[in-house]
Structure formats: C-alpha cells, structure tokens
Amino acid sequence: MAIRVITDSSADFDAAVAKRRKIDIVPMTIQFGSASFVAGKTISNDVFYQLLQESKTFPSTSQPTPAAFLRYFEEAKASGDQAVVVLLSGALSGTLQSAEIAKEMCGYEPIYIVDSVTATAGIQILVNLACKLRDSGLPAAAIARELEAIKEKIRIFAVVDTLEYLRRGGRLSGFQAGLGAMTKLKPTIAVRDGAVGVVGKSASSSLSIHRQSWWSSIRCKRCAAPRRTLIPTPATTATCPR
Q1: Predicted TM-score (pTM) of this structure
Q2: Cα–Cα distance for residue pair 231/229, rounded to 1 Å
Q3: Where in the chain is the domain with CATH 3.40.50.10440?
Q4: DSSP-derived secondary structure letter, 6
Q5: CATH architecture entry for 3-28+63-151
Q6: CATH class label, 156-238
Q7: Long-range contacts: 168-171, Cβ < 8 Å, 24+?
Q8: With pLDDT > 70 as the criterion, what percentage of the chain qualifies?
Q9: What number is the average pLDDT over the span 104-109?
Q10: What digits encode the pLDDT tens for the residues 209-228?
C-alpha cells in the first residue's frame, strides 16, 4: 500500500520536481477570452505572463471539476493506496469543494483532504513536508494531522509593483488598489486566514523584500527551529512554519 500526495496546479510546482517527488498535480483551467488552457500542460508560466500583459481580456481560472479529482481517487482506490490531498485555500477557490465531492463519489475513506489556507509557496511547503513524512514511513492519516497542525503558522509574502491585477481578479477592493496607486508605494501582500490582504508598503521593492526578510529571520529565531524559508521568486517569501 502506497501513499499518494496530490495537490492542484496553484502550487506552481515545476513538472520535473513534481515527477521526482511523486506528486500528482490536478490542473486548473485558465481562460483568456475564447482561448482555454490547462495549467501546466497547455500553457507555461512564461506564456501566461506574456498573455497577461498583451491581452485586452483579463484571464479567469476555473477550479478542477470533481471528475478531475475522481480520476486520481479511483486510481488510489483500485490500488489500495492512501492519499493526502493538499489544496489551495478554500477561501480563495472552490477547488477544495470539488475534491470533497469527488471523495464522496469515490466512496473511499483513506483520502485525507487538507485545506492549506494558503497559496503557491505556502502550499509547496505543506506538500514538500507531506512527501518527506511519506518517505519516512508515516501513514496518510498521521501526515494529514501534521499538516493541519502547522498550516496556520505558515505566512507567505509577495512584493508587487501594482495591485491592479489583484483588483481585477477580485482579490482586493478598488479602494485598496486605488490607495496603493495614489501613494506610489510598493505594496507587500500576504495570505492570512486563507485570504489575500495588504500588510505593508515601502518606497521600493528592495526595501520591502529586506523588511520581510528581517521579519522572517526574527520569527525563526523566536521559535528556535531550523529556518525553513522557501523563495521561489525574488519577490515571494514563505516563512518558517514552526
């Protein structure tokens, strides 16, 4: 009996890394006008950002359907495997609900669904920990309990040049985005309690990153645990979950 680790494409795992760590990725669908793409399969991150700048139509995403999850759950059931499923915050997407519906359709109990209450790099931290615990021989139920215990302690920060895309995507209000534009400050956003919000502003991106790096160092020293800082891009930091 094996343990399968499953997540969705919002975790932004590199395909080669996911394959090496034996992580199954359930993709979301990205829509640019009439053009539809499957995240991580028919569109790369580079192409996505190019279209974001060039397209007059703001993209929309569709959560994976229950059927998309059901495929992986049925495979686990047929093999007698267990599954740990770590997904994008339920406050940001209906992905979690799709997985829960699929589990009911599958009728298989050893599937443990974890609401990450975070996004991107934060999900990666949880998924990487799940893989480490799986490889150490821990059963799926125990892995899920470990993830539930630390997920609220994960904080991710991102420094952005503009809040316009977050406003257009409905993640921030027009007032919040407008205030950032008027002050001409570089906003720092964070995911807290599963939702996106502005947590600080600086005169430059480098200063903002410096401040968040300092905060992360202090946080890790306070908890007296080894630093577990993941920096997938120059402007995104995820802090120690302990």
Answers
A1: 0.75
A2: 7
A3: 3-28+63-151
A4: E
A5: 3-Layer(aba) Sandwich (3.40)
A6: alpha beta
A7: 168/58, 169/58, 171/92, 171/196
A8: 70
A9: 97
A10: 444 444 444 344 444 343 44
